[in-house]
Amino acid sequence: MTAVPHAAASHVLPQNALIESGELADLRASVAALARSYGRAYFQTVTREGRHTDALWAEAGKLGFLGVNLPEEYGGGGGGMRELWAVLEELGAQGCPLLMMVVSPAICGTVIARYGTEEQKRRWLPGLADGTRKMAFGITEPDAGSNSHRITTTARRDEATGDWLLTGRKIYVSGVDIAQDTLIVGRTEDARTGTLKPCLFVVPRDTPGFVRNLIPMELQAPEKQFELVLDDVRLPADALVGDEDAGLLQLFAGLNPERIMTAAFALGMGRYALTRAVEYAKVRTVWKQPVGAHQAIAHPLAQAHIELELARLMTVKAAALYDAGDDTGAGEAANMAKYAAAEANIKAVDQAVHTLGGNGLSTEYGLAALINAARVARIAPVSREMILNYVSHQSLGLPKSY
Ligand SMILES: Cc1cc2nc3c(=O)[nH]c(=O)nc-3n(C[C@H](O)[C@H](O)[C@H](O)COP(=O)(O)OP(=O)(O)OC[C@H]3O[C@@H](n4cnc5c(N)ncnc54)[C@H](O)[C@@H]3O)c2cc1C
After folding, report:
1. Which residue segments constitute the domains of the chain, with CATH numbers given?
2. Alpha-carbon distance 203 to 214, whole Å?
3. Fewer CB within 10 A of the end CB, N or C, for the chain?
4. If you measure from the C-alpha of residue 116 to the centroid of ligand 1, how many angstroms do you get, rounded to a whole number?
């Protein structure tokens, strides 16, 4: 067997000045340099030892990478989703994706920056921006799943004190153990049934009645998943972010960033896997030429590259529309970008593992774990099928079956 060194990941996908500004390319290069200095081995070690990526997270925060999308007056970089997406993609392309970026600065940061009171912005945004504070996000419920309109987590007002009392259950909420707070999507007693009129509450991790149970997962990642049980969790009046009567708009503010960032997560992982496979295919020789000379190996890798690049282009569109304030246009593009990136990543990882032959399944080469990890972006935060439903109904005007 020819040994293949774990060389630093290269930029499989060249940056194009017509698509991205020089500043963005510089940001990508700086993030890639930071992530490379930690490397995949760091990520694997902390995961294996049950630790977290605290050191990388803290350094990325100090360098301004984690809050690059948040307003400058609250400690952020004043950029948009283009920048935040670039950060997560580059971390992932070096084998060090920081999953909590999808929820903390992207969903929670955006919702608070857009709909929080001045006091709430001052309380939470600077920490989210420099990474000293993380916020998880809980919407999924065991009996609602993909149908968010069925969520039953209910907020009741204590008329005597003005406090809120929150009761319900959530499932598959990422990173609750490492986040000081969780942004919980509930509904008020007055709007308990029917079309969802969501209310968003910031729940500090140690609030009495807020219980988290670890869900064992077949995923090798430092971030853990939790079931949450909320039993009359008492929150002050100002735990409510935004207006209780605002309807879906406030929640939707966070969902386009969530989809764009999930695309970034998938694109980074796909690039990482493809880079490893290409390096290997160039040197592993069992006949006269390296295995990468066989079209049976080269063409699927070329296809994976094309499909990742296509997904990236849709992500460019989604981020550009979102940053320009076109939430509706961004909705379609963000869903398509998430779909395309997740599917491209699954194919890239599959082909990367196969390219390494038996080594693809070894612990040493570290690619097999990505097979499970790549599936996350297909099911979360919104499944492949729900995106196909969205496009069927919203883009094509086809009738609904549900
Ligand atoms: C690793 C991981 C991290 C996560 N992190 C978070 C988090 O931080 N916060 C959070 O709130 N949630 C999180 N989730 C939950 C995630 O968003 C849900 O798993 C996802 O929305 C799907 O819901 P479900 O699991 O209940 O599947 P279900 O809704 O039960 O769906 C089961 C299957 O049926 C399909 N299906 C459902 N309805 C339809 C339909 N109308 N048409 C066609 N097919 C349909 C789905 O596509 C899926 O394949 C996470 C999940 C995972 C795996």
Report:
1. 22-134 (1.10.540.10), 136-241 (2.40.110.10), 248-395 (1.20.140.10)
2. 18
3. C
4. 28
